Amino acid sequence: MNKWFRKGNSRRFYRIDMPVRYFIVPSSPIKDREIYATGVNYFPQTFLNKVEEQKFQVRHWARRVQEHTVTITQIVEEMLHYIDFFGDCSRAISEGRNPRNNLDYWMRINDHLQGFKSLKKLEQSSPKTFQYLQMIEEKYLVYLQKMATSLEKSTPQHFYVEGRLPEGFKLDETIKVLQQPKFEKIPLVQTILYIASYLNSYLGAYRQIHDDNFLKQFPKLWPVKMANLSASGVAIHVEKQFPQYSQVDVLFYFPEDDKVIQFDGSIVDIRVDEKTHTERVAINFEFPDGKHQDYLQIQIQKQEVKQCMDLVI
Q1: What is the pLDDT of residues 100-157, one digit of tens each?
Q2: Cα 101 from chain centroid?
Q3: Cα distance between residue 14 and residue 254, in whole Å
Q4: Burial of 183 (0-12, 13-18, 19+ CB in 10 A)
Q5: Is pTM beyond 0.85 here?
Q6: Dist CA 251 CA 185 (whole Å)
Q7: CB neighbours of 132 closer than 8 A, spacing ≥ 6?
């Protein structure tokens, strides 16, 4: 049977899973708020479920650490408190509220920029553990400083960002080492891993806020991601949530032609994927430009040919 008539593709345009650089953002941002916000929910229930589990695991493993128990517990709770604060600020930003306008929040930001106060208690007694936890502190402080700068310079019409957020922290390399099977039953290592995961979840949400306000003008920096694509729409997995039936701008970048094409889209379906803590979002292109649609169809056909060649090889 011809592929165009197979179940699941009985439509005018054939759908295919393919890697592509894309950028999707609501067509209309939140209006009349303290700070510019895209209107995306960066903290959907899937995200909240994930961080709640991570936080539970942090305390679960911390209770099993047998050395420096009191000090470790104190440090862990302080770290969780600081990370929660960062998450609260990020959530306020996503809703168009500027934490800087709250005196208590602004004082806490400046206080948190001094680092984890209880961490120094381990510097002499357990220097290796101190070093690991200091890596978490380092990444936290870099992001918090970037957030503080954005909050200070943002307006209701513009969310200020100064370039890309840093990557390649020592913590990220260390996590890869500590994830080896030989460490999976060591309470201190697992405590460190889950704190780092908890932090990275909130930093990841903030990075999405940041990138949605920065990357649109830099298509060469858009990451390559898998998408279920046709000339009439696209379905993607995201860690954020677009309002059902909302209008979005959908942009694709094809480096081989250094070409950006844009479609007006409408969110037509949202399905939760509990396993990956993501949401599958389906978007229809509304009254697409014929030339852009033809170009996209050609790219899809090229990908289909490539997949067939890979199968033959």
Answers
A1: 998 888 889 989 999 999 999 999 999 999 999 999 999 999 999 999 999 999 999 9
A2: 25
A3: 19
A4: middle
A5: yes
A6: 45
A7: 174, 192
